[in-house]
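Q: Cytochrome P450, please. Structure only.
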Amino acid sequence: MEMKTKIIRKWLSLMKGQEWKDIRLSVTPAFTTGKIKRMSVLIKECVANFCDRVTISTKKDGKINAKMMFSAFTLDVIARCAFGLNIDTLGNKDDPFIQNAQFVLNPPINKSPFVTLLFMYPNFLTSLGSIAERLFITKELKFFFQLLENILKERSQSQEKFNDFIEMADEAISEFTKEIDGKTVPMWPREEIDEILMGQSTFFMLAGFDTTATTLTNTCFQLARNPDIQEKLYESIVAQMEDYDEVCHEMVQNFPYLEMVINEVLRFYPPLLRVDRQCTKDYSYDNGRIKIKKGQLVTVPAFALHHMEEYYPDPEKFNPERWSPENKINRNPYSFMAFGMGPRNCVGLRFAMEEMKIAICTMVQKFRFYPIDETPIT
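A: Structure for Cytochrome P450:
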């Protein structure tokens, strides 16, 4: 199997069985609260640069293209945290990282039927062999594989600390062990650890780009449409800042109203329109009335679920109060699937929330959002 195909096979979303369990367990420690706190400093640097760009844009045009700017911000965060690189997407569009990322992350490639088939049927990749590589593993995607290979080689010869995902995932995966003949040994050889790291870093980019950028855009849209909610969030930020000099990891950790706003955005516009799971063994319920065969694909329509009157009264109204402790306590937790659900939920959930919290707090503290003539009605 080609090295590049091996890397893609290490994407968590494509893995199954014990291999998935082992790699999921090994990667998860890279997203603990302590590790997120370390990466939070990098996120703040990207947010500061982003706010400078917003200020320049508003002074020049009096408005911003929110989706375009949040996409640039999200790419800066991915480059900093998943690749250890400082880039400025809005200020240096000729950067090879940016040019290759824009091809990989934007349509038509990420909307192609082949990509959909790849995620639904992971074995499709290896069964097609070289055809799959020509269809999916483009020269732009190969750029990131080569980049990561170079980064890992350089870091193996350096003592410098980076506090980014590569470093933390490397630490976590390298510490994962198994027993052989009564001896504790590393779970994987160094070569395979590098494949896992390269796989997770590229998957980090693919899974965390549009979902985060779109959620931040939708947050600004709803705040602009609901000035009362925007004002309440601003006042909550001011109150929260009384104990802190700046927006930081500790400040956003225990911030109920901020989470209420973000959760309502995620309910209204779920990043995943549906959640797909494959049945691992024959199963029946409701006294055998409903039977699911092993290997059968089960799809949960997250968007429809998030807009069901049964769980969310007046579902077309944007209402953060539905996430207050007293309002959500009796709600079925499986009625909210913004990040999936169960053991295969989004492994980067905490990172995504940290990124969005810091960005939203800093933005609302510095700016006010208003709709303009070009702003969509819905």
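A: Brief note, in case it's useful. The CA atoms of residues 173 and 193 lie 7 Å apart.
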